[in-house]
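User: If you would, consider this record:
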Amino acid sequence: MPNRQLFDQLRATAPQISVGVLTADWMSLGTELKLLENAGVKLLHFDVMDGCFCPAMTLGAPLIKGAKTPLLKDVHLMIDEPLSKVDSFVAAGADIITVHAESTRHVHRLLQVLGKMPNANDPNRGLIRGLAVNPGTPLESIEPLLGELELVLLLAVNPGWGGQQFIPSTRARLARLRQMTGDSILLGVDGGITRDNVAEVARMGADIMVTGSAVFDGKAPLENVRFMMNAIGK
């Protein structure tokens, strides 16, 4: 049975924001990460795209490994057939590793494999297995998988582009998912999370909210992240 220490920690401290680094200033990444740490952020979100599952291509395991930070590494794999690749991301220091329900026909096997992998940062911490669900994927399709994961990440936008608007039907999907899982699984929402709606999404029952461009807007990242942390009571 997978170690639940990290799950219990995240459950006890929910809600949290997980800040995506794609829109950060990569020439000053160390400074940007320190800013997040000082603001009280606990989770750092890495969007890994392969140009096949979704149009964009972003980053890989070496960059995740090279990011020196005490923040928990929240790795979101938007890639085709991730089974042969997940070990490199676990070895790179992923604390949360989320795969897409739509990315492979053998997603149950993939989650089982992840459940046997130790956390490379601390074997006692445990690894959070996440399953991401695109806006058009029926929630009923993931019911058989709920016993093999610790997190369901609802996409509130279509994967592959930043700055999209929050899809309103996500509210009903999140409520339905909470009915399906109770408190046994962490629920996340990714996409369209801004200063204007982060508090509302937290009230809807999200444990983790992924945001990126709303923080790193090129104007006031420290002010933005502090505003969002305050909005969810952190």
Helices lie at 5-13, 29-38, 61-66, 86-91, 107-115, 170-181, 198-203, 221-231.
